[in-house]
Amino acid sequence: MILVTGGAGYIGSHLVKLLGEKGINSITLDNLSRGHREMVTWGKFVEGDLSDRDLVIDILRAYDVKAVFHFAAHSLVGESEENPRIYYRNNVAGGIQLLDAMLEAGVKTIVFSSSAAVYGEPLRVPIDEDHPTAPVNVYGTTKLIMENMMREYHAVYGLRFVSLRYFNAAGADPDGFIGEDHDPETHLIPLVLDAALGRRKEITVFGKDYDTPDGTCIRDYIHVTDLAEAHILALRYLEEGRGSAVYNLGNGRGFSVLDVIAAAEKVTARTIPVRMGDRRKGDPARLVASSERIIRELGWRPRYADLDVIVGTAWNWHQRRFSRT
Question: What span, in angstroms and rounded, lies between the C-alpha atoms of 146 and 112?
Fold first, then answer.
């Protein structure tokens, strides 16, 4: 049995679905503060919080859990700066509770949902795993703290981990059953699709004077199902007895804000109202991953790398979820 913390969230729910499709038994633990119960389409579900250490230990023991996928974390950069204590409480204190519960129950295998936010301002692009880590926001700091803790737990207690540093998760389940639904929504693709559906008046482009071909920021969008596939490969890697590791997860290609809007207009066959705004503080011109290490060592390859495909899966889900509201 595999435990998925935060499995009712965006990325976690896609992993839970993929585990079910591959015949891997899982149990989801989620407090539903930001996730959605209906997104957990496979396996068992327990509503609860990582702060309840006894509950976590009971789950690990009762279900004979062999490994943990850890997604349960807050992930809004702006919110982390405005209210850092909830990020340290949930992402760090909750992570400590989980790691200690795992040791208490004798579970020493974990795949961790990390973030490219650990790198901070890029010194070079594409960004590889050897790039210096210098997060510029509380969210990224909490992810790096967890990575450092897992290294110490590995050295002292024998915990074995893979940390996966995501770039921009995007898209939705190709079958259309689950997808992205945040409140508030901060990700570009669903915001653009909100404009296409008329749920918002327009989409604001923050800055058009960056040193990029069209002047707008470039980001690396990776399909959420490709992310889920990478987690399963990481688990197999650990099951084979290999050492702990850190991997980037990105498309390896950058798409600008205007590229995303153009793809959305093509996919939806609708005109999307755009307003040009000022730059936002701290937005780098380019954030693009090098995922060569995970491709080389784990054999991972993104199947949904095309931007039109990523946006198309998101649009199918977006219509199903929001067109009636």
Answer: 9
Q: Write down the pTM of the prediction.
A: 0.95
**CB proximity list for 163: less than 8 A, separation 6 or greater:** 112, 114, 146, 147, 150, 245, 246, 247
- Tell me the C-alpha distance between 12 and 10, whole Å: 6
Q: Which of 156, 189, 220 is nearest to 10 (CA)?
A: 189
pLDDT digits (tens, 9 = 90+) for 88-106: 999 999 999 999 999 999 9
CATH of domain 188-219+252-322: 3.90.25.10
Q: In whole angstroms, what is the distance from residue 322 CA to residue 200 CA? A: 12
Point out the catalytic residue in the list 10, 87, 119, 139. 139
Q: Which of 298, 278, 287 is closest to 234 using CA atoms? A: 298
The question of whether 210 is a catalytic residue gets the answer: no
Count the Cβ atoms, other than its own, within 10 Å of residue 234: 26
What band does 325 get if pLDDT is binned at 50, 70 and 90? very low
Question: Which CATH number is associated with domain 2-170+222-249?
Answer: 3.40.50.720
Domain ranges of the chain: 2-170+222-249, 188-219+252-322
Q: pLDDT digits over 127-147, tens only?
A: 999 999 999 999 999 999 999
- Beta bridge partners of residue 190, listed in sequence order: none
